[in-house]
Design brief:
Shape: elongated
Number of strands: 9
Strand content: 5-15%
CATH class of the largest domain: Mainly Alpha
Number of domains: 3
Radius of gyration: 26 Å
CATH architecture of the largest domain: Orthogonal Bundle
Helix content: 40-55%
Largest sheet: 4 strands, antiparallel
Oligomer: single chain
CATH topology of the largest domain: hpI Integrase, Chain A
Order of helices and strands: EEEEHHHHHHHHEEEEEHHHHHH
Distance between the termini: 65 Å
Structural class: alpha+beta
Number of helices: 14
Strand order of the largest sheet: 1-2-3-4
Length: about 400
């Protein structure tokens, strides 16, 4: 078992009788043991130092000895300053969590990103490297982590993403004085698995999109239509409010997204917040949905109420919407065994791909997709709908090129 802790919330101040010991804290680990920590300012920076003590009395004595070392300038000699990765991960995740609602988009972190970091830490990094200190960690350890994930059949992009999370953890340690070097930067380029996709995203034609929507229930059709006809991300579609839609001006404004906890949060990036045209097909779906919702309760289709909800009016979960889209794909015969099933994000892919196929430039498609840089659109979304390659080849042959 790793020495991963329960989190910053388990940290408690230490008392000797009725007197609190300044800067000394105790914390419970997952295995039930207790660790002792010192919060100390060193060279102008506040450090959280894990002590080697196993009892409160020893922790108080070690704190005094360590403070003497710090005063004498010998703090670098103390092994207590070298926290293990599990302890650092605990504090790093707490720091990331605190940024999920940050008003500065540059500093804000997506709840899904934080959840993904937590998952990769707990599944791969900490079980393998959690007991290592930053001074003990080396390139061989990282190669071992990569090899373990490769043997488990994980995709190259997943392995690279996990190494990126480890690098982020070490950057945090470096910034807070718990490490002198980010060892991930020493990893040879040949050791990095890359980010190549194992399977291409699905790109539906306009007719296939319409067929898929016809197979969806009234509850989930609006979610899929928002992704397919406005290019919204699933979290943005689930977080859309009625006040964000102007049926008179035919516009739809993205102002936020729905987090995994069912709470509305700021958009993924500053560029994601934008006003979009409300296409006629999407307008028809939303108007029909509004009539259906207002038939039960007029207030349910007004103001800051969410557009996409459950039958009881609660926020709709992403997982349920994804299952519904996949089931509709099966019903529409759009999920052949050799291809991955159609998902919600594939509808956003299809929206941009259809736009590009019908003559929109990359900057125009990037504007609709709300990318700050058209290069992102070219790299990620510049695929073409199924069959477009064949049609492009036919045009070349009809022009006499390559015949």
């Amino acid at each position: 078992m790793t020495c991963q802790s329960y989190g910053a919330g388990s940290r408690q101040p230490v008392y000797s009788g009725n007197r609190r010991i300044p800067g000394l804290y105790q914390r419970t680990l997952l295995d039930g043991s207790t660790v002792w920590e010192l919060r100390q300012r060193i060279d102008g920076k506040v450090h959280r130092i894990r002590l080697q003590a196993t009892t409160k009395s020893d922790a108080i004595l070690e704190q005094r000895a360590l403070q003497v070392d710090i005063e004498r300038g010998h703090s670098h000699e103390s092994p207590a300053l070298a926290l293990c990765l599990s302890d650092l991960a605990d504090d790093w995740l707490a720091d990331l969590e605190s940024r999920t609602s940050h008003r500065d988009a540059r500093l804000r972190r997506s709840p899904r990103t934080v959840a993904l970091n937590r998952q990769r830490l707990s599944t791969w990094i900490l079980p393998t490297l959690g007991r290592k200190t930053t001074d003990e960690l080396n390139v061989t350890d990282i190669r071992r982590l990569i090899n373990q994930m490769a043997k488990a059949g994980r995709a190259p992009a997943t392995i690279t993403g996990t190494v990126t999370v480890l690098s982020g953890l070490l950057r945090y340690a470096l910034k807070n004085g718990h490490a002198s070097h980010n060892v991930v930067r020493d990893l040879d380029r040949d050791d990095r698995p890359g980010t190549a996709r194992q399977s291409e995203p699905r790109y539906l034609t306009a007719d296939q999109v319409e067929l898929l929507l016809s197979k969806l229930s009234d509850t989930f059709r609006p979610v899929a239509a928002l992704c397919a006809y406005a290019g919204l991300r699933a979290s943005e579609a689930l977080g859309l409010r009625w006040c964000d839609i102007d049926f008179t001006a035919d516009t739809l404004t993205v102002t936020g997204q729905l987090g995994p906890d069912g709470q509305r949060r700021p958009t993924k990036t500053a560029a994601s917040a934008a006003s979009l045209p409300l296409l006629p097909a999407l307008k028809r779906v939303l108007l029909e949905h509004r009539r259906r919702v207002a038939g039960d309760e007029l207030a349910a289709a007004r103001g800051e109420r969410l557009v996409c909800t459950t039958g009881s009016g609660s926020p709709q979960f992403r997982r349920n919407a994804l299952r519904a889209v996949r089931a509709a794909g099966d019903a529409a015969n759009l999920n052949p065994p050799e291809r991955p099933p159609v998902g919600l994000h594939d509808l956003r892919h299809s929206f941009v791909a259809i736009a590009l196929e019908n003559g929109l430039t990359l900057p125009e498609a990037a504007l609709l997709a709300r990318h700050a840089n058209p290069g992102v659109t070219a790299t990620v979304y510049a695929g073409v709908a199924d069959g477009a390659r064949e049609r492009a080849t036919a045009k070349l042959l009809n022009a006499g090129f390559g015949a």
